[in-house]
Amino acid sequence: LGVFVYKEPFTRHSLVTFSFIWVGVLLYIRESLLSSRR
Question: Per-block average pLDDT, block size 10, for the chain (38 residues)?
């Protein structure tokens, strides 16, 4: 959001951090769904 609204730079470091956060969120959601079905 800051990249589009405030024209902040989006560096490779930011991309790696952003990716790790979303992978973690997706893994958490996946595990929550799998455990609720058991």
Answer: 89 95 98 89
